Amino acid sequence: METIVPKISVFPTGEENTAYAKYFSGKSWNAPLTSNKDLNVPMNNITFEPGCRNNWHKHTGGQILIAVGGAGYYQERGKQAVHMEPGTVIEIAPNVEHWHGAAPASWFSHIGIACNSQTNENIWLEPVTDEEYTEATRQ
Amino acid sequence: METIVPKISVFPTGEENTAYAKYFSGKSWNAPLTSNKDLNVPMNNITFEPGCRNNWHKHTGGQILIAVGGAGYYQERGKQAVHMEPGTVIEIAPNVEHWHGAAPASWFSHIGIACNSQTNENIWLEPVTDEEYTEATRQ
């Protein structure tokens, strides 16, 4: 059954993010916003259905998130989750374990910017359990 | 006389951009959105008063612009200006001469992302004349 994605930001939604589905709990969509490889700053708009989040993971080069629609969360391992809404900017330092995704009852879109992209690697870890997600988003 | 800046985006407006005023025709404001230098992707929200634009210039590392509020223009030397509104993303290749700024009758905010920041230099050229600006924004 095809999901109808609501329009929650001024940026494109793109296609269902099947390539990364194995690293996500729930459905997500990916719209590349840039294409010039000489710039070395790849930028994508990622949209999460309510409750969807990615696995715990880290980026050897770091990442920047810019919330642009709906409501979501960002959590670093061992810390309280941070609520994200349009205008929230999160700087994720290299090698910091974290996850991000939608709030339980809201769609969410953020722009994701790969940092130090010439050398960056994404290292995917275990899923965020329902218990971890519920606890993180309880506030 | 202090200018009252309207709230045109979800991002902060910051302080009047006096450091770069000599490269701008009109008043602008600058809000840094990131601070972690390990990421090598400096990101600022720049706000232009109506009619304000920066000089012709180029970046040796390139730049990405994300329009987030109001209405503005981007023009590469020798090409038609491009209208920018929230959601417009512009990739500026290294060493391409260009300018950007507000529409004549609208405030404008864009996020500016420095690319290849470890080596990037900004090279400032002559102001965009009133004739060039009027012609570019006539459409």
Topology:
The structure is a homodimer of 139-residue chains.
Chain A: E1 15-16, E2 24-25, E3 28-32, E4 43-48, E5 53-54, E6 57-59, E7 63-70, E8 72-76, E9 82-84, E10 89-92, E11 98-102, E12 108-114, E13 122-124, H1 130-136
Antiparallel strand pairs in A: 1-3, 2-5, 3-4, 4-12, 6-13, 7-10, 7-12, 8-9, 8-11
- Secondary-structure element sequence of chain A? EEEEEEEEEEEEEH
Q: What share of residues of chain A is helical?
A: under 10%
In the CATH hierarchy, the third-tier topology of chain A is known as Jelly Rolls
**Structural class by sheet pairing and helices of chain A:** mainly beta
Tell me, rounded to a whole number, the average pLDDT of chain A: 97
Instruction: Please name the two chains that share the biggest interface, counting residues whose Cβ lies under 8 Å from a Cβ on the partner chain.
Output: A-B, 27 and 27 residues
Distance between the termini of chain A: 32 Å
CATH superfamily of chain A: Jelly Rolls
Describe it:
- The structure is a homodimer of 139-residue chains.
- The relative contact order of chain A is 0.25.
- The first copy, chain A, has one domain (23-136): Jelly Rolls (Sandwich).
- The first copy, chain A, is globular, with a radius of gyration of 14 Å.
- The model of chain A has no long low-confidence stretch (mean pLDDT 97).
- Chain A has 139 residues and is mainly β.
- Chain A has one helix at residues 130-136, and strands at 15-16, 24-25, 28-32, 43-48, 53-54, 57-59, 63-70, 72-76, 82-84, 89-92, 98-102, 108-114, 122-124.
- In chain A, the strands form 4 sheets. Chain A has a 6-stranded antiparallel β-sheet with strand order 1-3-4-12-7-10, with no helix packed on it. Chain A has a 3-stranded antiparallel β-sheet with strand order 9-8-11, with no helix packed on it. Chain A has a two-stranded antiparallel ribbon with strand order 2-5.
- The N and C termini of chain A lie far apart (32 Å).
